[in-house]
Amino acid sequence: MSETLGLIRYDAMCRAIVECELLDEVLDIHDKAHALKIYAQQARNLDAERQACNIRLRAERRSGELLAELARATPSEAGQASGVARGNVSNDAIRSSPYADALSRTGLTRQTANRYERLAAVPAPIFEAALADPEAMPSTARVLRMVRDPAPELDKDALWLWGTLRDFERMKIFDRIPVDLLRGMTPTMQADITRLAPMVSAWLFVLAHGENYESA
């Protein structure tokens, strides 16, 4: 096992999580990410550990999304399923539910499943901000705590901008030759870039200089 996940492998695992439609597959990625996290800790590789934590959290969030889509047993069905089969009522006759079957099949406890569903309900800007925060290693508890105790004046557009610029850095977009990127676009995409790039450049210039530019 290499000491780092590597950007290509990391992005591939993130895409695989988003595309997963089966709970078992997402949990398999989750378990692999957990193993990578432990290995990175032993190797004292903080970058690899952070990547592994991010993958694990994305897998938990996707698991929560898939669990939330599964039907639960009705109160009467749950009451019947909680009892012991008696008389001429066999265990096979006790109705279950897709949700209960999923937990039984994967070995997830209801407490863990509930935590994953709570993670899935976290607004995307807050979730991405927690993963991108360089001050702390991302964790499920920390993400849920950010929802319970939100930072003051948390602007979703500001979070999106922050996350996007960090993605530029993480994906090494700044190291790419702009012309090469343009060549990979359709004519329509190129026309949009030609129109928008000067506007973005001017806006980012003001952003970079902040109050010093405004007061000049």
Architecture overview:
There is one protein chain. This protein is an all-alpha fold and 216 residues long. The chain has a domain at 1-83 and 94-121. The chain has eleven helices and no strands. Helix 1 (7-19) packs parallel to helix 3, helix 2 (23-43) runs antiparallel to helix 3 (46-68) and helix 3 packs across helix 6. The chain is elongated, with a radius of gyration of 23 Å. The chain starts with 6 loop residues before the first helix and ends with a helix. 19% of the residues are buried. Mean pLDDT is 82; it is low at 84-94.
Strand and helix layout:
Elements: H1 7-19, H2 23-43, H3 46-68, H4 75-82, H5 98-106, H6 110-120, H7 124-132, H8 140-148, H9 156-170, H10 178-183, H11 187-214
Helix pairs in contact: 1-3, 2-3, 3-6, 7-8, 7-9
Keywords:
single chain, 216 residues, mainly alpha, 0% strand
* Biggest β-sheet strands, sense, barrel: none
User: Shape from CA axes?
Assistant: elongated
Mean pLDDT: 82
If you compute it from the alpha carbons, what radius of gyration comes out, rounded to the nearest whole angstrom? 23 Å
The count of DSSP E runs of length 2 or more, i.e. the number of strands, is: 0
**Termini gap:** 54 Å
Strand content: under 5%
The helix/strand class is mainly alpha
Q: Count the helices. How many?
A: 11
Q: What is the succession of H and E elements?
A: HHHHHHHHHHH
Fraction of helical residues: over 70%
Low-confidence stretches: 84-94
Question: How would you briefly describe this protein structure?
Answer:
With 216 residues, the protein is mostly helical. Helices cover 70% and strands 0% of the residues. About 5% of the residues have low confidence.
